[in-house]
Every structure is written in structure tokens, then in C-alpha cells.
């Protein structure tokens, strides 16, 4: 889902502020859900509820990362950071990976204790179902709210967070099913559900680590063929090469070499390079900046 162009319009700061307000509201809802599940999980001994509470806590941490990212995105480049401050968001996201792995270890420890009988069988009461049902209803509200605001503001961050929360709803349904099985006389389903939740969190940590490592190591972001197709659609351009992209999917830096006729006056070549740049940034709004290097075609270079 492409993001709107990160231009200098007066609407951009207002949009950042609106996205931040949505994230703050969702953050408090996610914290409330996490505290309710974790608190009840410790009190009742239901390790699946406790694990799902930690899962909800990761949602709150994602909201914090989102707030850092929005704040960083709103800061213009300066003398020390000529490319802007967007990588602060990536660094913050990468740090969440360590937190998630600690959560996984804690969940697995609790699940192992229950499976080996080191912990007493939990009290699966009606209250546990009530807690799960209420918190799941809050998650559904968050999904609808974030999805609507994400579409209205054109925010990929809000839409992605809503998608993640939708996945939490399915996790909660699995926990409720496990609680029902435990209450029916199969208590082993409680720790097994906790292990499944740990798997979900571990996979989320893997995805975050993979995505942030690619950004921090300046991995390619856009297809060279897609960029070349747009460039070659500009009349007067003879070819292009050395196409390089880096950054995040919604904040891309691009540079490339464009071949123009050597007989073309410098002023005209300069103007045409701006046409290429404008065409690229119009076609791909996620491009924050594009640097165009002007060259004669290879046969003229070798002559």
C-alpha cells in the first residue's frame, strides 16, 4: 500500500499529528487489554491467558515504535542528518525484537512448568472466558478504528497495525478454545495453547528482525525494472543504468544514471532530468528523494 508523498505541504505535519493521536489511543487500549490478561493469567494460573497478555503487550510496544517513527518522519533533514531521521524508527523496531524474544522465553518457561507438573493445574473459571471475551471485543474495536483511520489518512502504519491486531483476535479465539478444553477435563490444552502463542510471537520477532536488518544494511527496496520502465517512458531519454534504492518501503532514496544525447544543451539536459525525477516521484510516492546523474550513451562514451 503506497504512502502519500512526503512533501513539504502544510498538510503533512497535520497528518503526522492525526496519525500520532490514533496511535496514542490504540496504545492505551492495548495496554489495558495486556494488563487485564496478564493480571488474570497470574492470578488464575492460566498460562494461555498469561501468554496472550504478553502477546497484547507486544502490540503496545509496536504502537510505541509507530509513535517514534511518526515523530521521526516529521523532523526535516538537518546538518547532521541530511537524509532525515527515518532510520530512528528502524532502530526502535529492531530493539523490539530483543523484547519479544524475552517474552517468548518467559512464555515457554511457564508452559514447561505446567507440562511437567511443577505448577498446579490452573483454575479455569467463567471469569477467564469473560476476560478473554471483553478483551477480544476491544481488539475488534481497535481493528475497525485503525482500519478506518488508516484509509482516511493514507497511513500504511495504521493499516499494518490493524492487520496485526486482527491476527491477535484469532489468537484469542484459539486461547478460548483451549480454555474450554481445559475446563472440560483436558488441562494440557492450556500450556499447549501458550506454546502456540509463543510461536506467533517468535515469528513476529523474526519478521521484524529480517525487515529492520534489510533497511539498516541498505538492502534494495524497489525493482530496477520498474524504475527503468518509468524512466524510459520519458521522451528524449536514451537509457539508464546504475539504479540504486535504499531505505524503507514507504521512504525510499533513489539514484540512477540517465543517458541523454551528448548534443543536448546542458540546460535542456538539466530540465529533462527534472522531468525524469518528477515522473518517478509521481509514479512512486514513497520515493523521498531521487538523484539523477546525466551521461552520454555508452557508444558516445567510448568514441
Structural account:
The chain has 303 residues and is mainly α. It folds into 2 domains: 11-216, Cation efflux protein transmembrane domain (Alpha-lytic protease prodomain-like, Up-down Bundle); 224-301, Cation efflux protein, cytoplasmic domain (Alpha-Beta Plaits, 2-Layer Sandwich), CATH 3.30.70.1350. It contains 9 helices and 3 strands. The protein has helices at 11-44, 47-73, 87-115, 126-153, 156-183, 189-216, 224-231, 266-283, 298-301; strands at residues 239-248, 251-259, 287-295. A 3-stranded mixed β-sheet has the order 1-2-3, with helices on one face. Strand 1 (239-248) and strand 2 form a beta hairpin. It is elongated.
Task: Give descriptors for this structure.
303 residues; disordered N terminus; Alpha-Beta Plaits
Question: SSE order in H/E notation?
Answer: HHHHHHHEEHEH
CATH superfamily of the largest domain: Cation efflux protein transmembrane domain
- Widest sheet: strand order? 1-2-3
Proportion of strand residues: 5-15%
CA distance, first residue to last residue: 45 Å
CATH topology annotation of the largest domain:
Alpha-lytic protease prodomain-like
Number of helices: 9
Average residue pLDDT = 82
The CATH architecture of the largest domain: Up-down Bundle
Question: Considering DSSP H and I runs of 4 or more, what fraction of the residues is helical?
Answer: 55-70%
Low-pLDDT runs = 1-11
Q: Which term fits the overall shape? A: elongated
Q: Major sheet, described briefly? A: 3 strands, mixed
Work out the radius of gyration. Answer: 25 Å
Which class best fits the helix and strand makeup?
A: mainly alpha
| Number of structural domains | 2
Total strands: the figure is 3
| CATH class wording of the largest domain | Mainly Alpha
Amino acid at each position: 500500500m503506497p504512502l502519500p508523498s512526503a512533501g513539504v505541504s502544510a498538510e503533512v505535519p497535520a497528518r503526522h499529528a492525526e496519525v500520532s493521536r490514533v496511535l496514542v489511543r490504540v496504545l492505551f487500549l492495548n495496554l489495558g487489554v495486556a494488563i487485564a490478561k496478564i493480571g488474570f493469567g497470574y492470578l488464575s494460573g492460566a498460562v494461555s491467558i498469561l501468554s496472550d497478555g504478553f502477546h497484547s503487550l507486544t502490540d503496545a510496544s509496536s504502537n510505541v515504535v509507530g509513535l517514534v517513527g511518526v515523530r521521526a518522519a516529521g523532523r526535516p533533514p538537518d546538518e547532521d542528518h541530511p537524509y532525515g531521521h527515518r532510520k530512528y524508527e528502524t532502530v526502535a523496531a529492531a530493539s523490539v525484537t530483543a523484547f519479544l524474544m524475552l517474552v517468548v522465553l518467559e512464555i515457554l518457561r511457564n508452559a514447561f512448568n505446567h507440562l511437567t507438573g511443577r505448577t498446579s493445574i490452573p483454575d479455569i473459571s467463567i471469569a477467564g472466558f469473560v476476560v478473554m471475551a471483553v478483551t477480544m471485543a476491544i481488539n475488534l474495536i481497535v481493528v475497525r478504528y485503525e482500519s478506518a483511520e488508516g484509509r482516511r489518512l493514507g497511513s500504511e502504519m495504521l493499516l499494518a497495525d490493524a492487520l496485526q491486531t486482527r491476527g491477535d483476535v484469532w489468537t484469542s479465539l484459539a486461547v478460548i478454545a483451549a480454555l474450554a478444553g481445559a475446563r472440560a477435563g483436558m488441562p494440557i490444552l492450556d500450556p499447549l495453547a501458550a506454546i502456540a502463542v509463543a510461536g506467533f510471537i517468535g515469528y513476529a520477532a523474526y519478521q521484524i528482525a529480517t525487515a529492520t536488518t534489510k533497511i539498516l544494511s541498505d538492502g534494495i527496496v524497489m525493482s530496477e525494472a520498474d524504475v527503468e520502465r518509468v524512466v524510459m517512458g520519458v521522451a528524449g531519454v536514451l537509457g539508464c543504468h546504475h539504479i540504486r534504492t535504499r531505505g524503507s518501503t514507504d521512504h525510499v532514496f533513489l539514484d540512477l544514471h540517465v543517458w541523454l544525447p551528448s548534443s543536448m544543451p546542458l540546460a535542456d539536459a538539466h530540465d529533462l532530468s527534472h522531468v525524469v525525477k518528477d515522473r518517478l516521484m509521481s509514479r512512486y510516492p514513497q520515493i523521498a528523494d531521487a538523484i539523477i546523474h546525466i551521461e552520454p550513451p555508452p557508444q558516445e562514451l567510448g568514441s
